[in-house]
Amino acid sequence: MSAIVIAVATESGVPIFTRKRGNNENIQFSTIASLHGINMFSKCHNLSVIHSQVENGSILWKEYYKSVTLIGIVTGGLECDLELLLACIHDVMVFCVGKKELENLKNIDQLKRDLRQCYPILDYLLESLDPNSVPSMTLVLDLTQSILCPQAQHLQQVLDNYAERVTGRWACLSIHGHLVATSSDFYELDPRESRLLLLLAAAQDGAPLRDTLVYLPYMSPDVAFRAVTCKLLADVYVLVVCGATPALSQIDEIVLQCWEGYAQIIKEAKLVHPRNFPASITFEPCVLGIFLININRRRCVFSRHLQLSNQKGRGMSGSHRIDILRTFYVTSARDLAPELNFREILDKDSDESMGKITETYWSSEYHKCHAQRSANLLCCVLYAPTIPTHTMR
């Protein structure tokens, strides 16, 4: 398996960055030039290369603002929506440097330097495609991973108070890169913007307090906001989008005043990970994994540690369970929620008949999967192969 994303300047063909994941070698400049040349040759003949199949893989070209071309390559039988991947990469670029900077490529060397700050976020996105890894931040590209914990409502109240103290508009609290609590106004943001803010908090590399200028790709692609990220405990971060004031030193003091008395509550919330469901919720032993999605808010909860004991599911590794559920969702279950389909979002007049289907399932010798939609929730479950198909519901 390998996934590669290349960004080049459309007119000159100068590489801007290359990021990769998997067992592939570094891409040579001559290869990048050839790939870009294919796209330019097509444009000269008033054609568009939309998609290209290669041996055991595919390639996609996507041009933005007539100035930047993204090239996505996946091989090794990887199930991946390349169009969605490149759209996410584009959002990250706008998030870090702004739309105007990408539209007017006056200094490519400066753009290369500016985009280095987004490399950790790009790597998190590519990590979510690797079937041999256990993604730490995002299981699928277009959903925000969350934790369901009993402390969430209490933490939200503290978060609202903190956001008000620093005159912030949007704030979120994350544990191990998973969303735990948000400020009351957080859902004003486009789900893709809220996911980027969460990834930014996770990509702080252990810094106790950091100030970052960010552009919201859909709300404010040209005017930067100030995002302040603070580390509360190990793998626990609070992020707030606020104005130029207060100063970072003052925010440091406010953080201490607002959060110092809630360290124990945060530690209790941390214990919910990696199960991600409260201990009060129990599951049958035949359930090996669960993937629960809030369709409207593009939030999800995933768990492969459902049994409170150390019992393992039929010898199936954690990464294998993740890969099965993710593949089941991408290839089958997502059709139960056309709102989650990237192409459906682009094509408002598409056929909505799939929305009438509420269930689907897979059945094999080694495992079974079942997905069911109920109103705004979509639930995908991985079962042991011993459970009868008709009882999965």
From TrEMBL:
Residues 6-125 form the FUZ/MON1/HPS1 first Longin domain. GO terms for biological process: non-motile cilium assembly; vesicle-mediated transport. InterPro entries: FUZ/MON1/HPS1_longin_1, FUZ/MON1/HPS1_longin_2, FUZ/MON1/HPS1_longin_3, Fuzzy. The keyword S-adenosyl-L-methionine does not apply. It is found in: Cytoplasm, Cytoskeleton. Residues 287-393 form the FUZ/MON1/HPS1 third Longin domain. One of its GO terms (cellular component) is cytoskeleton. Residues 170-259 form the FUZ/MON1/HPS1 second Longin domain. Belongs to the fuzzy family. This is Protein fuzzy-like. It comes from Papilio xuthus (Asian swallowtail butterfly).
